[in-house]
Design goal:
The complex is a heterodimer of chains A (188) and B (197).
Chain A lengths: L2 H18 L8 H44 L27 H24 L14 H12 L2 H12 L6 H8 L11
Chain B lengths: L1 H5 L2 H8 L3 H27 L2 H17 L10 H16 L17 H6 L5 H19 L3 H10 L6 H8 L3 H28 L1
Helix pairs in contact in B: 2-3, 3-4, 3-5, 4-5, 5-9, 8-10, 9-10
Classes of the chains: A mainly alpha (188), B mainly alpha (197).
Chain lengths: 188, 197
């Protein structure tokens, strides 16, 4: 490449590069940008506020769910021992003679409450697991052992014979029909 | 300069003290001062008027989003230019890079104002040369193309380009030199072909 060609190329390149980004935006771009910024600035606090409220709502929902869960969780079994039952405080009756009737009524009320508490405790004395698991009896163990050691067909057959209605024993009937003459024993 | 006074020490001190009104004032000043630069940075990358304008708006929205950092910024111009550059780069993959026909080929407002009545032949030749040059630039590797594109924005010098790209100024100069050499070779080859035609 000769020197003049090189200079021309440089000039051409400079010209192309200088025009490469020599563009001007359309009129009103600044106005549009300012409008967009104002809209964003106005929108931002609302957005923040909305998120704040949304966060509060979520927190409230979680709190409600926790309360609901705790409220419906299985309560600890209440002991039926009478010494653990919290006794209702019995109000002390007034010491005046005039209040004798009131005192007796209060004592009666306290007695009623005590008895009611005991009744409620008995009613609440439920097992934690229902049905309550208990160890197998000896007979049940024998039955299980027999079931395990006996073929299935045999068990079914035995079960069927048990279910069938009892048929009249024809042989026994025939035997009954045969009248055997009673031997007369003379006592004389 | 009046516009420089807008971003003077008093305003920046107010920004540092967390004055919201001063922050708005600074952003407003950035819009007034640098909209054209931001647009040109976006245009140099996107090569499309509409996309460049959208990216410009998006750049200023990002400034608003990061307004808390304004008081830590030393050079608002390069900070804004970097925002514009990254915005345009983000914009580019999701957009069609093919320039709109007739838009980036000599029908810019500047040229319309400068040249009242270019002949149709001149117009066609200029369009062809411009499109060819766009293809050449697009064919450069990223590390050379990006500083070259920024260097075509007349508001930026090589030191500022280095700040924007976060590379030393000497690297910017080296890359620009290499990019120019490649473009010159391509141009020479293209002109040689045309001469033979």
């Amino acid at each position: 490449m000769t020197e003049p060609d090189n200079d021309n190329l440089d000039r051409l390149l400079d010209s192309l590069l200088s025009n490469y980004s020599r563009e001007i935006p359309r009129p009103g771009l600044e106005t549009r940008i300012r409008a967009g910024l104002e809209a964003a600035a106005v929108w931002k606090p609302r957005w923040f506020l909305n998120w704040k409220w949304a966060g509060a709502a979520v927190a409230a929902a979680i709190a409600a769910a926790v309360i609901f869960y705790l409220g419906h969780s299985p309560a600890a079994p209440i002991s039926s021992k009478p010494e653990l039952v919290q006794k209702q405080p019995i109000p002390e009756p007034a010491s005046t003679v005039r209040d004798h009737t009131i005192r007796s009524v209060a004592q009666a009320g306290a007695q009623y409450r005590r008895s009611k508490t005991q009744v409620l405790q008995v009613a609440d004395d439920r097992p934690d697991v229902f049905p309550t698991p208990s160890p197998l009896s000896e007979q049940e163990k024998l039955l299980l052992r027999y079931m395990a050691g006996t073929p299935r067909q045999e068990i079914i057959a035995q079960a069927r014979t048990d279910d069938l209605p009892a048929e009249p024993d024809s042989d026994q009937d025939q035997l009954n029909l045969i009248r055997v003459p009673q031997r007369q024993i003379s006592t004389q | 300069m009046a516009v420089q006074a807008t971003l003077g020490d008093s305003v920046l001190n107010q920004v540092e003290s967390g004055d919201a009104g001063a922050t708005v004032e600074v952003i407003d000043s950035l819009v007034a001062l640098h909209t054209r630069m931001v647009f040109r940075i976006c245009y140099s990358i996107l090569r499309n008027h509409h996309d460049a304008e959208d990216a410009t708006q998006e750049s200023f929205l990002r400034v608003l989003k990061w307004q808390d950092r304004l008081h830590t910024v030393r050079n608002h111009k390069t900070w804004l230019a970097r925002i514009a550059w990254t915005t345009a780069l983000d914009w580019r993959p999701s957009r069609n890079l093919v320039p709109i026909e007739g838009e980036s080929s000599g029908s810019g407002f500047q040229e319309l104002l400068q040249e009242k009545s270019p002949s149709p032949e001149d117009q066609a030749a200029r369009n062809e040369m411009r499109q060819m040059f766009d293809r050449m630039v697009r064919g450069l590797p990223d590390e050379l193309r990006q500083p070259l594109e920024l260097s075509t924005v007349e508001e930026l010098n090589s030191a500022e380009i280095g700040d924007i790209m976060q590379i030393p100024e000497s690297s910017v100069r080296t890359r620009l030199f290499r990019a120019r050499r490649i473009l010159k070779e391509k141009l020479a080859a293209q002109l040689e072909v045309k001469r033979h035609d």
